[in-house]
Design goal:
Helix content is 85%, strand content 0%. By secondary structure, it is an all-alpha fold. It is built from three helices and no strands. It has a domain of 34 residues.
């Protein structure tokens, strides 16, 4: 295998690992937000954040999760 191919494979593996980590962090943030909303009885906000990404981002900031 040529050096160029090896470097390409390493970059691709790094990107894939970064995507996995990003998805895991996003999942953890979502779960933390859901728990915070449920603990405060904010079920309508929980439902809305599932449909409105901008609203969810605001809630993440409100709870200091992001």
């Amino acid at each position: 295998m040529m050096l160029e191919e090896m470097l390409k494979d390493e970059r691709e593996a790094g990107r894939n690992e970064g995507l996995k980590i990003g998805r895991l962090e996003g999942k953890n943030q979502s779960l933390e937000l859901a728990n915070a909303l449920v603990s405060q009885g904010r079920y309508e906000d929980l439902k809305r954040c599932l449909e409105d990404e901008a609203f969810m981002e605001g809630l993440l900031e409100e709870f200091g999760i992001k």
